[in-house]
Amino acid sequence: MFSWLGTDDRRRKDPEVFQTVSDGLKKLYKTKLLPLEEHYKFHEFHSPALEDADFDNKPMVLLVGQYSTGKTTFIRYLLEQDFPGMRIGPEPTTDSFIAVMQGDVEGIIPGNALVVDPKKPFRKLNAFGNAFLNRFVCAQLPNPVLESISVIDTPGILSGEKQRISRGYDFAAVLEWFAERVDRIILLFDAHKLDISDEFSEVIKALKNHEDKMRVVLNKADQIETQQLMRVYGALMWSLGKIVNTPEVIRVYIGSFWSHPLLIPDNRKLFEAEEQDLFRDIQSLPRNAALRKLNDLIKRARLAKVHAYIISSLKKEMPSMFGKDNKKKELVNNLGDIYARIEREHQISPGDFPNLRKMQDQLQAQDFSKFQPLKSKLLETVEDMLANDIAQLMVLVRQEESQRPTQMVKGGAFEGTLHGPFGHGYGEGAGEGIDDAEWVVARDKPMYDEIFYTLSPVDGKITGANAKKEMVRSKLPNTVLGKIWKLADIDKDGMLDDEEFALANHLIKVKLEGHELPNELPSHLLPPSKRKITE
Fold first, then answer.
1. Residues in domain EH (predicted)?
2. Which fold has domain 21-50+291-402?
3. How far is CA 110 from CA 74, 99, 101, 135, 155, in A?
4. Sheet holding 150-153, edge to edge
5. Rounded distance, CA 263 to CA 171, Å?
6. Three-class DSSP category at 494
7. Residue 487: which of 502, 477, 472 has the closest Cα?
8. Which sequence spans correspond to the domains of the chain?
């Protein structure tokens, strides 16, 4: 249990006591932010109110992409088993949102039952109506991967004539709802068809403000040659640059995420490295879940503050008696000027304001006479939360992380390359010769010995100064050569014998071939004569 006491005794007489970070977030939201949201109709404009399940649920990964980009296959690859309701094919097979979650027995929970379950974080999806709920299910199954994360599979985004057919619900709005609550958004692209349809473009734009959660996977990359893959990658980055309006480049992972043989194995090492990077990113989600929820609450609070200023400004400008309709049209048309005035008066960043055009559309259907004037006390409470409570809760996050064992996603594909010879980089670089009975450095030792005996050894050893003259020829930085020296000077006498010198040259070769140096010398690289020293 943790407790912390705010510095302002007037504000709080007793210390706030929280069992967990999620308890703290729930209490702050309900007592400080929710009153502001309700007073200014925040939920009608932006996002429904948060519930306890939103703070308690496991990290979620949202998969988005056009049809036949391998979204469902990607989930099957991670879990290493089928899940209820799974359909895979080249045509648009997944026609529903499927929340793949941990359960004691396999089964499917339909959408209408799902949104009345208080333990699931989906109750507010009820607002999207039956057309959506008939296309939303939860697939439950026992799986070690799902003990740490949940995965949301989405319908394939359509292109061509198909996208003209209405789905019956606001697809982009549903994805935006999920984007606010998930920990990672993975956009999948097929290396064979990079065209970004109008619907996909609209979806990516709806995910604006969640770029920090977005990752891109260029899937099925084993089906094209290396030269074509370079062109496809360049074309993908160009296309994304036109839609995602950020100066930073979104991280793109290249690979083939299914359990079939690679059609063109030329880039196998690249795919393995990219897969490990993506897996590490997904595995880190449970560890960073509390921090992500805290970050999302801060973003929500900043938007709620701005929303309160906008609504109260519109209320202030409205006449009390006549000409309300004309004034409403004028205010909606001049909303950009109101944004600018609020920005100047309250020193608010332009990035905190909601989308201008979307806000104008939403205001058309509102009755401005029911808007509330500015209530300073509500805003001061939220300001106090951001300035004091959040900072204290941040300390609690770090304390909680330090007291828990390292949390990582385990099982499924995450275990496949963890141990044994199929681990990424096994038998390569510093790991070369790990299973050999003979010392791997001995293969090139005659060549290294010729150099060694030209460096004036005394009593079978060369000084550090003489070793340096030879080692700097590699053109590696002194920081790297210093690390190699520490690894090679096994007896720590400040000199190198012929075996240590050969080892130093072997490590230089490892580094020049593009591999990382180990922090500690692996046992298989110890020279035979030195193995007794380290025992």
1. 444-532
2. Topoisomerase; domain 3 (1.10.268)
3. 23, 10, 13, 9, 16
4. 107-110, 136-141, 97-102, 150-153, 60-65, 184-190, 214-219, 252-254
5. 35
6. coil
7. 502
8. 21-50+291-402, 60-284, 429-525
Class of domain 429-525: mainly alpha
Q: How many residues make up the chain in this entry?
A: 535
Q: Which two tokens stand for residue 524?
A: 């298989």
User: What pLDDT score does 164 carry?
Assistant: 46
One of 3.10.129.10, 3.10.20.30, 3.40.50.10170, 3.40.50.300 is the CATH number of 60-284, namely 3.40.50.300
Two tokens, residue 141: 């199954």
User: pLDDT of 328-387, one tens digit each?
Assistant: 888 989 999 999 999 999 888 888 898 888 899 989 888 888 889 989 999 999 998 988
Distances 319 to 126, 376, 526 between C-alpha atoms, Å: 36, 22, 85
Q: What single-letter amino acid sits at 144?
A: P
> Rounded to whole angstroms, what are the CA distances from 28 to 282, 420, 514?
28, 47, 49
Residue 294 CA to residue 183 CA, distance in Å, equals: 12
CA distance linking residue 155 with residue 175, whole number of Å: 11
Question: How many C-beta atoms surround the C-beta of residue 351 within 10 A?
Answer: 7
Phi-psi region of 78 (alpha: psi -120 to 50; beta: other; left: phi over 0): alpha
Tokens coding 262: 């690679």
pTM, two decimal places: 0.78
Burial of 494 (0-12, 13-18, 19+ CB in 10 A): exposed
- What digits encode the pLDDT tens for the residues 292-312? 888 889 999 999 999 999 999
CA distance 87 to 289: 30
Structure letter (DSSP) for residue 514: T
Cα 37–Cα 39–Cα 43 angle in degrees, nearest 5: 40
pLDDT tens digits, residue range 143-173? Answer: 999 999 999 999 888 655 454 456 788 888 8
Q: Which amino acid is at 333?
A: N
Cα atoms in the Cβ-side hemisphere of radius 13 Å centred on 440: 22
